[in-house]
Design a protein that fits this description.
15 helices; alpha+beta; Heat Shock Protein 90; 3 domains; Rhopdopsin 7-helix transmembrane proteins; Methane Monooxygenase Hydroxylase, Chain G, domain 1; 5-stranded mixed β-sheet
């Protein structure tokens, strides 16, 4: 029984060199535009964990597109370059495409490590795998002696290896990492962005199947059983069309899902307007209290003082009563003043994690460097308004020191709640210092550190500083709290 007519027609169509060139060019264009779009739509100011991993995905798309265009360029240069030069160019194109999938795996592992901090070591594994692949590839290539035909066979074997190691694992773990972002989006009130991001994960699985399972034919399993030649013979469709279509689906959903940054910006804007309205109303009340009630209480106190002075011969009990009333008036004035000060401080209705996010947004504009923040919910009422103000002032001092003295390029703030209390860490990547080194009393940075310690003591907590020259600084604040 002969093969289906459609399969035969497709095979004949894609065997034409001109059609393969068009396919490779279109394949590269899809990934290049995806990478360019991701880099354009990613936002460095975003609080989302996704934002910190996206540059790797953008780099994957751009480098993969450039590598594909190399496959368009090289076959038509046989009359221009010698075989030895073409062999070198083919090897460079192979390394470029392998590196592009290394960036995909870095995106996946970076996102996982940011989401699950105990997996911080994952990104280091990627570069170890790539170095092993590259060393083996270069060693095998140098043994061929720039023989173009043998180098092309070698490139296909090592392409099978990098597709298994980087494309397949990168797509699978990328899908997993994207699906783990659901909890963060729910916490930030961005539920509408969850379905598009889940579809990105599904499309990554599709791309992983096409780019990571259907590899060039090689003399080991499963590349000897499931490979691009077998798929082409069965369907008449080259694997690059499968990977191109799956890549287009990934590109569509990833660019659609990045509207999450617009939703996040709108949420921030709404919160800022709401906070501005609340603070405006609180300040208005504070002014009314100061200009109205306090002035009235002052007048009452002055009248009572005048009355006491005029009653020179009055009964001592009457004078004592007037003095008691005056003390009550003075107490009322002090209470109103304290209330006015609390009105001008952070709202007590907001929890510590919410207040920290609002405060860090203000610091971000002053610091002019990325200030990342990751928090766990801290129920409102666990921290008093006065304690909250002390905590925010500690954060301000730590960020200020990192910018002015440590010359940091990034600051990370983490708030974690456990059964013992609250742990707040502020980490910078600056020049660091020796906390135990003697220092002059006039050193402003260390004076600020002493102030931070005193504030921590007043909270019943403990502040520790870990730093050494050239390795940044970590400030850890532990505060006990009880429900």
């Amino acid at each position: 029984m002969g093969e289906p007519l459609v399969v035969n027609l497709l095979r004949n169509f894609f065997e034409l060199e001109a059609n393969r060139i068009v396919l490779n060019f279109g394949h590269g264009l899809i990934f290049f535009l995806m990478g360019f779009g991701v880099l354009m739509k990613s936002k460095s100011w975003s609080e989302l964990t996704l934002a910190r991993a996206l540059p790797w995905l953008g780099a994957f798309g751009i480098l993969n597109g450039l590598g594909d265009w190399g496959l368009v360029f090289l076959p038509i240069q046989t009359t221009v370059f010698s075989e030895s030069v073409l062999a070198v160019l083919w090897m460079l194109a192979t390394v470029m495409l392998a590196l592009s999938y290394v960036f995909l795996l870095m995106f996946a592992f970076k996102l996982l490590a940011e989401t699950k901090t105990e997996l911080f070591w994952l990104p280091k594994v990627v570069w170890g795998l790539f170095v092993l692949w590259l060393v083996a590839f270069l060693a095998a290539w140098m043994g061929n002696g720039l023989d173009l035909e043998q180098d092309l066979r070698l490139a296909r074997i090592f392409e099978a290896f990098y597709r298994y190691a980087f494309a397949l694992t990168g797509s699978f773990f990328g899908a997993l990492a994207l699906m783990l972002q659901k909890d963060e989006l729910q916490r930030l009130g961005l539920e509408a962005s969850i379905p598009p991001l889940m579809w990105v994960g599904y499309s990554f699985l599709l791309h992983g199947a096409a780019a990571g399972l259907i590899v060039p034919e090689a003399g080991f399993f499963p590349a000897s059983f499931l490979n691009d030649r077998v798929v082409f013979e069965l369907t008449g469709i080259p694997v690059r069309l499968w990977t191109g279509v799956s890549g287009a689906i990934v590109a569509f959903f990833i660019l659609d899902s990045l509207d999450v940054f617009d939703a996040e910006f709108q949420r921030r804007l709404n919160e800022a307007h709401q906070m501005q309205a609340i603070m405006g109303e609180r300040l208005r009340i504070a002014r009314d209290l100061h200009d109205g009630i306090i002035q009235t209480l002052y007048a009452v106190g002055l009248n009572l003082e005048g009355l006491a002075y005029s009653l020179k011969d009055a009964d001592a009990a009457v004078k004592d009563e007037i003095q008691s009333i005056m003390r009550s008036v003075d107490g009322a004035i002090k209470d109103v003043r304290k209330y006015i000060m609390r009105l001008k401080e952070p709202t007590q209705e907001a929890s510590l994690d919410e207040q920290l996010h609002l405060f860090v947004r203000e610091l971000q504009r002053e610091a002019r460097i990325p200030v990342r923040i990751k928090t766990e919910p801290v129920e409102g009422g666990l921290i008093s308004a006065e304690a909250m103000m002390d905590i925010l002032l500690i954060v301000r001092e730590a960020v200020s020191n990192a910018v002015r003295h440590a010359r940091a390029s990034e600051i990370r703030i983490t708030l974690v709640r456990d059964e013992r209390g609250i742990n707040l860490s502020i980490v910078d990547d600056g020049i660091g210092f020796d906390p135990d080194a003697p220092r002059p009393k006039s050193a402003g940075e260390h004076l600020g550190l002493d102030n931070m310690r005193r504030r921590a003591d007043s909270l019943g907590g403990h502040l520790s500083i870990h730093s050494e020259p050239g390795h940044g600084t970590e400030i850890l604040l532990r505060i006990p709290c009880h429900q």
